[in-house]
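Need the bound structure for alpha-D-glucopyranose, inputs here:
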Amino acid sequence: MNKDLNDTSEHIEVSVDELDDADIQHVNNPIVGLKPIVKEFLGSVKEVRQENNKFIFTDGAASVEVRVVSDEIIRVRMAPHSVFLDDFSYAVPLLDQKVAVFNFKDEKTYYSVSTNTVTCRINKENFLISFVDNDNNITNEDYLAMHWEENAKFGGYYVYCTKKSDPDESYFGLGDKPTDLNLRGKRLQNWNSDTYSFAKHQDPLYRSIPFFISLKEGNAHGIFLDNTFKTHFDFAQEDPTKLSFWADGGELQYYYIHGPKMMDVVKRYNSITGTHQLPPIWALGYHQCRWSYYPESKVKDLAYQFRSRKIPCDALYLDIDYMDGYRCFTWNKKYFPNPKKMIKELSDDGFKTVVIIDPGIKVDDNYWVFKEGKENKYFCRRSDDYFMEGHVWPGRCQFPDFTNPEVRTWWGGLFKELVEVGVAGVWNDMNEPAVFGSGTFPDDVRHQFDGHRGSHRKAHNVYGMQMVRATYDGLKKIQKNKRPFTITRAGYSGVQRYSCVWTGDNVASWEHLKIGSLQMQRLSMSGLPFAGTDIGGFSGEPTGELFTRWIQLGVFSPFMRAHSAGDTAEREPWSFGKELEDINRKFIELRYKLLPYIYSAFWEHHRYGFPILRPIVMLEQENADNKFREDEFTFGDKILVCPILDEGATSRNVYMPKGNWYDYWTHEMYEGGQEHLIQAPLDSMPIFVKAGSVIPEYPVMQHTNEIEIDELKFQIYYSDCEVNSFQFEDHGDTFGYEQDIYLERKFIVNGDKKSMTIKKSVEGLFNPRYETYDLKFIGLPFKPSKIIIDGVDFKGEIFFDNLKRVRINVSKYFKYIQILK
Ligand code: GLC
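Answer from helper R.:
Posting the output first, comments after.
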């Protein structure tokens, strides 16, 4: 039906064949007669009123609330009949932040709400909303007034927002989409789906992260559509001049997040949705998984193989076969007669044990978990009050309603025995939720939604997040001050507060190696930094070469776990012959050497909200070419990672951002701002360190608990301009850092042709046991004649090698070092 888009007078009412009261936005909406469904648009602004940091505008029928969340974040909500939904969000626990000052103005043609960095303008005549920076540039602008359409089937509304899109505007983010990094020209949706062996461009996958970053003429801002229903994003696909996002129900509620730096947009998104807790340091080691390692003798042999072959490893996983008939929280006593003893032995050998727990609870009146859930009415029910039943691994199952806080507390308590047996981490799977045959729950399943009841249409995308939240909170309570380790497949924005994620059932192919690299970068810039892929590919068989290239990428995956399906050949780092075993060992050892650097990047994320993997476009967003660079990234801000992603390739072109970069292996220096051809035979991988960096290094260890460090190594790379670095350290597995029991060392490196200086300062109360540092200076353009430490001539030995590297041992308390020609 054609409708004049500016004509907002028409209000058409539609019939419903099923009314779901919990999804309806306003109780008085009359539903009569069968009429065509028509989109309704906001009209002109008639009135405005202020309630503290909220400004409510109305066209007489519909209302829009503009809320100042922080100096850089403004939230917009729309209520078609002026009755806003409960202001409740699983994603945003920190709605009101510190706002220095905000202002409201009534101008001739528009109203404005501004902070000291951004202004939201609401056009009086047509209700179009725009955001403007301090230089009066429009950063984001409605193309159409916000609009809606009644949902004839369920009640409630489809809600829409359409913004202008510039021809050169790019879009990034949206979580785990297995597609090009730049989303311009794509239409995507969010509906958590179990997608075994997914294909490139397949959509949707396992997670719903309705947050994206726009980049226009070098300036960025973000939009977070906080709506848990199925959501849709059209990134100028249908019409190159328009960007649209909409939801199949719920409220049109989005956050405008000001930039202009992409890094700041992600940081600000994490400031409202939360950051990761610091993971236990063992979680950053190498993890080995398979569906499934059993019986006990197999698991022990696996452990033995790692230690005897001297391949570092911190965690072994038990997939579903450890359970009795796939009943969660039970053990198959035939395979694992004494789990406590086995786990203790593994632990004595430095292995943590992680077990899988799925949401499907077997219908079995002799099974205590089912009985407790049934008696307490903890399982999800359909609209006719019958329990939601579906088949998963255990056969006929019912499913806890994790959106009910009481159910979450119960679920969290169920982990007590597993923790007592010694289990160190929990892997939540199948929580989209996945059901054999139908895919997931029917739409009419009811959820408590923390008191804001709704159907599965509203709860589907948060089900997995609430499951892993229950798991995380339960473990945290049981383990007291120890950091929980959880991993989840499904999630919604904010899931990073509770868990790390893996990208699900990928495939052992070169294409999937590339997809994995993209997904990790995209997850990182979508606020989920602790992510990894199934190294080697879940289904299918990798060649040895592919597995090794995947291990190399894995070193720089925030979460490094090899995993494979049950019907595949053996898939351990030694499964492809001696030569590849040696290369795989070398790279897993590299992961352990870099652990203090990797751990520091996690701290930076936790404390400041910065992503861990940073695509090149985030580093140099003003360079338009970078919008399409997607096969390299930095880990933290100091290490440039350029994985080899093509079969048979032994070299690749590497683009280095501006500044100087050192080859990690050879220490050769390259000038950035251009591409270089880098050789990378199978036993190598192009990795570069930014000039001026101070990179901490551990000795090679077989697991994170093996060695008490007696001297910390630092590699210090010469730079002719000032560069800041930091390193974080603490106990590695407690929440002591919340009470300042940590140490953050900050370094400033600088140099000229005749000298190099390093300044150090510290923050925090943690005091490591070791007393000295082993400092290696790389890339000095001169042979040093003198080193002065805190004003005193250094008398110790100065090692100077033929690669012009200088090495000294110094007290950890030094504050200032000068190296002179
Ligand atoms: C799902 C998971 C996979 C796991 C398997 C058996 O396919 O994605 O990782 O191994 O279930 O539990």
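Comments: The radius of gyration is 28 Å. The domain at 281-608 is CATH 3.20.20.80 (TIM Barrel).
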